[in-house]
């Protein structure tokens, strides 16, 4: 994918997923939306010398990427995620990569994949596939080449 500059459409973000430690990561077909939340841990204290003003220090960080789309049987990435729906523990983990339009990549090793919707909706709707990718330790961030 060519690097983007300026304002860009969200579809230029790309995601790949695969087995933990596996050689191959695959894109995920038919995903329509995603949102990202940063879950920060902040320690607070109020020492006497601050005259009642709170001091703070960020001491923890986590990321959750929520993805929603359609179930596409036969697509490697989509099938891989759907296959995690009934698994627990380390069996529900995967390697996940987020490629930004500017070329930055974020790699999550052993990310926890939490399936929230799989194949159920109105009788005339296309079957959904919705899931959260939850960081499990510090991700590897590679800044775009300047």
Please characterize this protein's 3D structure.
- This protein has one helix at residues 76-82, and strands at residues 14-18, 26-27, 31-45, 55-70, 93-99, 105-118, 128-134, 140-142.
- The chain is mainly β and 146 residues long.
- It has one domain: Pnp Oxidase, Chain A (Roll), CATH 2.30.110.
- Strands 1, 2, 3, 4, 5, 6, 7 and 8 form an eight-stranded antiparallel β-sheet that branches.
- A hairpin with a 7-residue loop joins strand 1 (14-18) and strand 2 (26-27).
- It starts with 13 loop residues before the first strand and ends with a strand.
- 14% of the residues are buried.
Count of discrete domains = 1
Terminal CA distance reads 16 Å
Shape: globular
Report the sheet-strand fraction: over 45%
Number of helices: 1
Largest sheet: 8 strands, antiparallel
Oligomer: single chain
Rg, Cα atoms, Å: 18 Å
Q: Return the CATH class.
A: Mainly Beta
Summarize the model shown.
This protein is mainly beta and about 150 residues long.
Which helices and strands, and how do they pair?
Layout: E1 14-18, E2 26-27, E3 31-45, E4 55-70, H1 76-82, E5 93-99, E6 105-118, E7 128-134, E8 140-142
Antiparallel strand pairs: 1-2, 1-5, 3-4, 4-7, 5-6, 6-7, 6-8
């Amino acid at each position: 994918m060519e690097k983007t500059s300026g304002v860009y459409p969200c579809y230029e973000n790309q995601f790949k997923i695969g087995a933990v430690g596996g050689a191959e990561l695959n894109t995920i077909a038919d995903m329509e939306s995603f949102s990202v939340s940063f879950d920060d841990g902040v320690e607070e204290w109020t020492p006497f010398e601050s005259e009642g003003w709170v001091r703070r220090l960020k001491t923890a960080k986590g990321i959750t990427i929520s993805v929603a789309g359609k179930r596409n049987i036969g697509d490697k990435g989509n099938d891989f995620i759907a296959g995690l729906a009934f698994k627990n523990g380390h069996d529900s983990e995967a390697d996940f990569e987020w490629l930004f339009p500017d070329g930055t990549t974020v790699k999550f090793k052993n990310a926890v994949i939490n399936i929230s919707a799989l194949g159920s909706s109105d009788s005339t709707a296309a079957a959904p596939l919705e899931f959260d990718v939850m960081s499990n330790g510090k991700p590897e961030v590679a800044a775009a080449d300047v």
